[in-house]
Amino acid sequence: MPEIAEVARVVHFLRLHLVGKTISKVAATDDGNVFGKVGTSGPAFAAALTGKTVVDVGSQGKYFWMVLSGPPHPVMHLGMTGWVQIRGVQTGYTRYVERTKGQPEEWPPKYWKFHLETETDGSNPKVEVAFTDSRRFGRIRLVDCPGQDIRKHSPLVENGPDPVVDKDVFTEAFLRQKMRSRHVPIKALLLDQSTISGIGNWVGDEILYQAKLHPEQYCDDFDDADVATLYKAIRYVCQTAVDVLGDSDRFPADWMFNHRWGKGKKDSPTTLPSGEKIIHITVGGRTSCVVPSVQKKRGRTTIDDVKEEEESVASANGTESRFFDDKKKKRVNGNGKTKAKTEPEERPSKKAKTAKSKAAKQEEAEDEPKSTPAPAPKASRKSSKPKKEEKPIEPSSDLGRRRSSRLSRISA
Hints:
Blueprint: H1 4-17, E1 23-28, H2 42-49, E2 54-60, E3 63-68, E4 73-77, E5 83-86, H3 94-100, E6 112-118, E7 128-132, E8 139-143, H4 172-180, H5 186-191, H6 201-211, H7 224-243, E9 279-283, E10 286-290, H8 302-314, H9 322-329, E11 330-332, E12 338-340, H10 358-367, H11 405-411
Antiparallel strand pairs: 1-6, 2-3, 3-4, 4-8, 5-7, 6-7, 9-10, 11-12
Helix pairs in contact: 1-7, 4-7, 6-7
Protein name: Formamidopyrimidine-DNA glycosylase N-terminal domain-containing protein
Organism: Hypoxylon rubiginosum
């Protein structure tokens, strides 16, 4: 997902090629996700931009916008796969370029949601810009307010400060207060856009690796020295990534980012050049890269809470669950009312059945005197009617078949 660095790259190219130009033509798909889920439509977007001049381009975290010569102004979010392309200009970052290497430029590009072009004159050639999004998680909305007040309106007003843009707001004291007021894993706090804007999965992992803090440790369990270290790591990672416009080829060599992409790939490295192992865990519903030898747990984590909960349930009544303890105290009578059970009911014991071999049964039968009559068959419990007299069983005429001694006595 594009994060603070990738958004900075988009803003850089829009400022370079679009600011000061007048938009002459706009085409937009009427996508119910990209436009519709934030209260606008493709035709409304096209109408709002046509004939307007782009005065400025701004950003806050993962959001960016164009300030036009008059409201409403477009505010955009790239979602998972969104990107802004400029015809004839390579705006993509390294991994984006790798996916499209060798392919001829297609215009409008595949998966476009809008594309526009500017007026042309002798000194200003035409510029063509497109917003693409294959998975349609991006969002494009219109904010109707003066250009300088865009950040005072939704969705920007609900988001926290940008670590790079809002240096006067995002201070160490601000971070300490946010960490003390919450009880969540530190990785979850960093990803919360209402706390800090722009930090996504890979940026959050890199920050915690540089600060040598474990992502599962609770944010309110760090001391002041840890908070100071984390603040410096946030500022360092975000500023460095933005300065190089998200170009990973220019990231510092000691960053974990350069070695984190081996999960599930054959023959891909899962260690740092130093030999320290990289593992993947889930924190706050997101996959996190961790170097255990560097990022040690030094306080309470989510794992500790799970263990305590299991122990408290097990110790409620010996080793049994409280569910069974409650069932011992109550039972339901015929009227549906519950009453206390004073003594446990005893079930009648069943006689154990012992299996005897056929040979042993045969020997017992032969040892019995032949004059002893066979025991009468038991009457069925289901019916009290007398049973019909049974006819004696005739001996089989088949001499080759083996007969039991019991049948011999009955026939005699």
